SLH domain-containing protein (Paenibacillus albidus), 1531 residues
Amino acid sequence: MKKLLTSKACALGLALLLVISVLGTALVPAGQVRAQAQNSAVQEETSVTEATYDAGAAPVDAKVATQAASVTDAIYKAKQYVLANGSLSEWNAMSIARSGTAVPDSYRTGLESTLKAANGTFTKVTDYARISLAVTAIGRDATNFGGYNLIEKIYNFGQMTKQGVNGPIYSLLALDSGQYKVPDDALWTQAKLLKEILSKQNADGGFIFFGTQSDPDITAMTLNALSLHKDDPDVQAAGTRAVNWLSQAQKADGGYNHSSESTSQAIIGLTSMGIDPAGPEFTKAGGNLVDHLLSFALPDGSFRHLVGSGANGMATEQALQALVAYDLYLKGETFYHFTQPGSQKPGVQAVVSIEGPQAPIAAGTIHAATAVQGLEKLAQAKNISLEIKDSSMGKYVKMIDGVSEALYGGYDGWMFAVSKDGHWKQPDVGAGDYLLQPSEKVLFYYGEYGVTNFIQSVSVTPEHPEAGKKFFVTVLKEVSDWDGSKVVTHTVPAADVQVSVAGQTVTADAEGVATFPAGVAGGTHTLEITGYQKDAVPSVVRHTSKLAVSPKQASISIEGPQGLIGQGVGLGYTALDALEQLADSQGIPLEITNSSGMGKYVTSIGEVKEKLYGPYDGWMFAVYKDGRWTQPDVGAADYKLAEADQLLFYYGDFSETQLVNSVIVTPAVPESGQAFSVKVTKDVTQWTDATGTTVSTVPAAEVQVSIGDDRVTTNAEGIASFTSGKAAGTHTLLVTGYREGAVPTLVRTATPLIIKAASTTAPVASTATISVVGDSSRGTILSSRTMTLNGGDTPYSLLVRQLGGQVIAEGSGSNLYVSSIAGLSEFDLGPLSGWMYSVNGIFPKVSAGAYTLSSGDVVAWRYTTNGGVDLNQPTDGSGTTGGAGGAGGGTAGAITSDNTLSVNQVGQTTTVTNEANKMTAAEAAAISKTLAANKVSITQEVTPGAAAALKDNANEVQLQVPAGAVGGNVKISIQEQNASRPELVSGLYEFTPDGTKFAKPVDLSFVIPVTTDYPGNLTVAWLDKTTNRWIPVPSTLDAKTGIMTGKITHFTAYAVIDRSKAEPEAEKLKKDIAATAKAITAAGEISDWQAIGLVRSGNSLPASYLSGVKAQLAENQGEFRKVTDYERLAMAISAAGGNPLNIDGYNLIEKIYNNENMIKQGTNGPIFALIALDSGNYSIPANAQWTKERLVQWILEQQSKDGGFPLTSGEADNVDITAMAVTALSVHAEQAAVKNAIDKAINWLSKQQLENGGFKLSGEENSESVAQVIIALSAAGAGPGDARFVKAKGGLLSNLATYRQTDGGYAHAAADKASNGLATEQALLALTAYDRFLNGQTKLYSFTEIPAASGSTAVVFADEKQISAWALQSVQKAFDQKLMQGVSSDSLVFAPKQHITRAQFAALLLRLTNNTPAPASSAPVFSDVKAGAWYYGDVLKAKELGIIDGVSKTAFHPNGTISRQDMAVMIYRAFKLEAPVDAQSFKDESKISSYASAAVHAVSDLGYMTGFDGAFDPSAPVTREMAAVVAVRLP
């Protein structure tokens, strides 16, 4: 190690350089814009071609000023529109940045994620160019963004001209925009790009894309690329000809080709060349280019593609770019010149602070171009004295507010730093040369280099303390040393700093931890860290942050004067706290003023300042309570949040801007094309001396109601009529009161509008007639009766209501099948005998459970002996959906009201009506809320001679006892029990006297919330207390109302249950899983599917598994022939806690979504690709060969008409493939087409199931097919207990059990007597999927939450939420194995993000190698390792064993942060590793120090430490959670 200089030496060598050059030398711009008068004169005399290279500012006259104001307004609206409409495009980000507005930081992080997901690789050069332009525009370096050099990707792109001239144009723009250097030997230098571009110019002066026709868009785009090369005579001539062509090609209306985009491109291109797009040469009869573009604008800020059309994303994107380009032109700038001097840049909004040696001096938000301008403006605004001096090294800040340099007699003085991402950095240019970025923070502080340090991080444990409860504050600081050639930065605990909060000040201990044992009061407090010292510079720069104690969450909307500015969830103690937190997280500029008279209040949001239109308008806030918006009596800073508050911050005037009270649509749910009206009311607040504040609700007249492109103004009654209706679907209904040049009259309100499809059937009537006639010997079973219809009644529901338990059927809806009525069953009189039904004399071609009856319908049930011939029904079977030939086939569902078989022994027991109109989630939630507040308790005496109805006040339970049902007087009691069982949908009710039997069946009804997608699985059942099994009774369910009725014959405990969740042997299931897992691990080598099964069932996975996978990848160099290999490995690695995005440098996810062999294995490839990509919620690039959307669509296209899926097109449908398809599609079931496909596939699987509950594949019964169906049903939410899969002789689970062997494994075929590896692994997956389904856990293949390995103590740390998901299991193991402990003696705190020190890691290695510390009496070795320190013996022993060295001969730097390469060296020495022979190089190999190279490659080769994306990042600090991960990997 090189000897470090002292801090005084550092100060002499570096401090002067940093302090004296604070301002730098570039205070005067390189060139000045011409005077406006000169420009005006030139403009009047020159032609368009002569003016091409006159880039002076445009003349300013009344017309130009008016147009500029319109442009400014349009820019503001367009920015608000794109910011409020989700993620930004690269072009929008450029426009927002070039307009001087802060681009949300979420855009940068999202762009980095996109790059990482694509592994920095794209197929089009325009992708690299577009992203590079955006990166440069937001102030980042495109040569190193997210670890990728995008610029090199451009100039060495092999297929530059594949996209025509587009590629060279945007590549040249990208290279020039940031003045990036291009090597002479590059494939494409600027000169080569220019030559290629110029070769595409036509003789007429225009440029071509493809073909021979000049194109205005391409010609304009070319001007952008040529603009920075105008000194080249060839470029100058080409530019002049192109500008002339654009003028000649312009249409009379002022545009090109009728689209706004061509006009936008022309404006951008012309302004880049210094040409006024509103000048004489570009003004035609219909106006100039700018006027023409503005004619496409819509009130909400968006732009149309064509006049008369609606908002268009691309049109808005290009229009915003053009408007910003024109605005920049008026200021003497061009759009794509991103590196112009700060003096030519418009001021951006930034926060400037001044920190003195003993206290803060001033802070404020200012607009400035450079850091020093910001300082000067702040000093002027705050009336602070400021002295700037000249020296031989340039200008520097000598004094601020009377505090001069060398105050303490040393090298102390004024310094500056900047921050945008939360960390301060000292730029390598002076403050005079440093160009500010929007929303950047600038700090001028008094200190001394090497003495005054920055706070690196402040973490609070727990993150949000409870009021009055103990919490800890851990503070780390950055320290810098000079190693002889460069500055080396370390992170160390900030010992002895003062931590202040809520009036309490605590000094941090040696570990940088300040403990507040009694906590503080609830609220949002300022947490202040200081290092003030008497007669000396501060040890740290003052740092403040917010601390929320007992915070609440609130949903917040921010409504600007012309549109939505932002919305989301904020966290805080007060309304203002929550707004600040939301604004900070979304990058929304926010200004708050603290007035002595008014307290804190909002003065600006999103750069919209108070008094924009007049002296009384500004930012206001409201809270949604009791169904309406109210304005609290206190300000936002004093309004204490309640949990889940809804807040509204809006711009307006108290007397002019009102809040919406209600929006009422009539009819409530219009049909497609049906006229409807919208009535809007508003709350008007008035104040008088007599009455004080009063609120009245009145019609909202003259406001705008918008639905898509349709906009209607309300009349005097507040009504807007939409006479043409709207298309079916869910629309957004917007109510606004925007005005030009004034505050809104009404705060914008958005509500959903549902338009249903037009009715195709007549309204449901009040009555229908039904009759039932058997064969010739039975005759009439039910004479003709007229019945009152309920909504959604079917021929089957009428039949059941009349004959109840005499009807035997299975299935529901379109799959319902009636097999017997009044004892007369199918096949009783021959193979073609059975029941059929007609309506109005016609035999429908749908099931009796799917035909909705109408007014006056006549239903006739008839028994046929010969397939319908005797009923004059066609013999093709088309009408036999009610009986013979209908869906179903088993008799497992044939039960009566006195049934004693359990739910897993019978099939369908419930008839569902209104399944297509099932209650909404909101309706179900309302029912659940009502039932939760109700407790059923009923007692009533029933007599034999009279009917009786027993029900509670909430109608939760109702018992209808017909006359003659009881033999004597009976006092009936119904009592709701306390019960918690996963299958319960209703409460559990005890009916007494227990065992009472009725002479005739009794109707028992419940009201339940219907939330399942499979309501046929709900049934009324009684609990057999001896066997703990549920016994179902024949039931009917109205899915719309939630009324469920069962026929019962005796008293016991009853409930409505979901049969798919009823597992009476749950403990046995877990034992079976454990035995199967044991059988697999005992067999030796673990397959990938077995690994998934073991982890997902909560069992341990051998540590050798991942090592074996890595070896397999290395052996194959990450390349496999089959896509299913990548899919299987990606899922197994993810399940095992690895990262398939980077497993030893291989990105398996990318190998899946860009696989050219996706469909070579038939349906298998796409099915498991979708499962794999969904398993970890991976981000898939939009330009991937196989996006999730494409995979879903492709799979759907393979489905046969009957619902099954084949392996390859043209083959027969396959049980296994169909089940796998259901599993894959289940994640996307919210899509209607997908849900329909899943339902069809499940019904097809039910039809293929054998009577014993099993399945055949290729003619052979096998366990694997059963396992796949269990996995599928569990994934789809139906569960293997679904009624459709219970056949006459068994169900899925009972069938799978027949394959079980004594060793815990499973056989392939029933006749086999030995376990089969493939069958066993699939059985484990199936049982695990079912167990997770029963317990409400994530799906089998959803790996976002990997369970801890069995045997772990599963310790819970107080700061566990701060531990990364990928590290949690390792942290727990390290704790269990006593390798690492918490950082506090008072509470279990791990501090995962705290950097581990050199001493801590030395001690950890001693524990791992079973070495004991040296005795306390040992002689010291290092001057900074003192006897008595906790690490004294550890460091001495590690030194003795050769594990560590000092940073010098006498110093160890025990509290210094350890880097990744130094960690590798210590591991290498501790375990005596050997350097690998053929080590694979890292991308950042040159950054790895020579002393660490062998160690880095050794630990990487063994998998102890890994890099990311091919890089090792050797100098990065190691956190405690990182150390835990490495520790548990070590032998």
Q: What stands out?
A: The first strand starts at residue 283 and ends at 284. The first helix runs from residue 7 to 20. The chain has a mean pLDDT of 83.
